[in-house]
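Record type: monomer structure entry
Structure origin: computed from sequence
Chain ID: A
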Amino acid sequence: MAVTAKPRVIVIGAGFGGLWAVKTLAGGPVDIRVIDRNNYHTFLALLYQVAAAELEAEDIAYPIRSIFRDFPDVDFALAYVHRIDTEKRIVTTDKKAFPYDYLIVATGSIPHTFGVPGVDTHAFFLKTLEEGVELKNHIVCCFESAAMLGDRAGDSGILTFVIVGGGATGVEYAGALSELIHGSIVRDYQNIDFRSVRIILLEAAEGLVANMPESIRSYTLGKLRQLGVEVRLSTKVTAVTPETVVLSDGETIPTQTVVWTAGVRAEPVAALSGIPVRNDGRVPVTPTLQVPGHPEIYVVGDAAFIDTEGGALPMVAQVAIQSAATAARNIGLQITGRQPLPFRYRDRGSMITIGRNAAGAVIGSRTFTGFFAWVLWLVIHLANLIGFRNRVMVLINWAWDYLLYERAVRFVFPSQTPSLSKSPSCVFRTRCDDERLNP
């Protein structure tokens, strides 16, 4: 970026918060630089469908430079941020250091393991495209291994899939995985006894999707059980091993697939930079979203602890979008010598999908369940996808799945095996291909 007299604004992160911050700032009297470790934006709301072989990874990703190509004052740096020097006003990355006059931290969140032994090593997560593809590969490879094991597959835990966390991600993935297994996969593997397949959803609280009204929570529980998902409430996980999940009551579930969706915490950039954070890594910000003592630094979205009269705001996309837009507008006010304004959050509702024709939605004081809520969920998510091609591809895949009960992405790809390899494509971090195949 050429050196100019305009204030330099750095936005760390190109998620929902980062994108809306840039769109709000663009065209103003500033030079903007976006820094992200990936050169694409991921539509995380549909990541679970990548892991359930319903969508390809490319369908929910969009190049960052393409998003900003019409903004001449916006530049992008593909780099990993190590820390922020709040005194010198410099962002240090693995490539170079970038000075700033104003900074927006929109780094998002990472999985929270709550210190449970074995989760970091043995569980699968759903926070990045790579993790979504890896989980999808693992599920397919488990069935390939089960086809070789025959009658022994049920005893090995290969066909037991445990999802930990009954929030939106856990519920949506449990429903999608059930429809994948009892739809496309059951027709592909006719030599497997599918009575041995188990999908278990574990939730430590007394109910699912705690942020939703009771009517939707009850509806969600009933629909998941109709799909064959074993839902266990008030159940805590105390350890995860390569072949088991250990529960607080001492029960051990044999499994080689643990999907951890039990919680998230803020990315550690702020903590590593000496900025005060809470136990979950979030930065307690002022009502104007600034870091106390550093009025030039704003923190938004999942990285910010935003306290309101109704309590702390949740770590969801709408909070990230609205807080980022407010932070960007406040920088504009500061540049013109005016005082930043407090952030006012407007709850636009929430929704969750459980499976085919089944969803729950809250809009204002009204709740909806069933087919109407499902269609509403489809329309809103399709409209919020970035890129015309992505919308078309997602719509085609959804229509194909809905009309033909067919998931088109059931291949193990990308494979890490070279063209002359003597090993099959299912040899990767999964525990499903092991010595049991050659006892």
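Annotation 1: The mean pLDDT is 92.
Annotation 2: The chain has two domains: 8-37+79-111+264-335, 119-262+349-404.
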